[in-house]
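Morning!

This is the sequence you dropped in the shared folder:
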Amino acid sequence: MLKVNEIRQHFIDELKAERFTTDRLGDKTIELIGASFLADEPAVFGEPNEEYIEAELGWYYSQSTNIDDIYANLKEPPKAWQYAANAHGEINSNYGHLILSDKYHNQYQRCLAELMANRDTRRACMVYNRPSIWLEYNENGKSDFICTNAVTYYVRGDKLHGCVQMRSNDVIFGYRNDYAWQKHVLERLVADYNDKNFDWVEEGDITWQVQNFHVYEKHFDLVK
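The structure's back. Tokens below.
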């Protein structure tokens, strides 16, 4: 399986060769369709912003769907969230809300229960996206078509592995923040599984599968 360093080299090579696609706004992008690799590094380019990651994790656990709550109104939320939100700051993609809330069937607890009931299961899946997103992604001025489709977990041997399946993922900032969240969820699952089960497991690998993995033209200078 490919690793992050090989994915990194792909984008470096594509930029050097000037192999671009053009998005709906006329901007260039470098993209990789159908990417699948071992997420063995927390960033493809640059370094994670730990301060922001901590704030985002707290916001996810709050289950608020308003981006103004990311920093508790102490400063503006990131521009990417502002672009996704409607005029009131509402979005769809609070990942904690999607897997922890009763509204979406408390998928985290159901997934944990499935893993404990059947160590060999292939059903331990948390679904982030939903068919109704076609009606909700642009509701009241939003632009938020949930990027993560689903994540499935497997106990194999003595390890608990995660397989992340994404509709779309920005290489520069999106991957860093999404990786931090998925690693956190996997770590929590391992801890909760071990707390309630005699069959001890360790944290395994995260496989990252992206239908469209891309770098925007405004970030080409970071591809190095």
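Headline: The mean pLDDT is 97.

More detail when I'm at my desk.
O.
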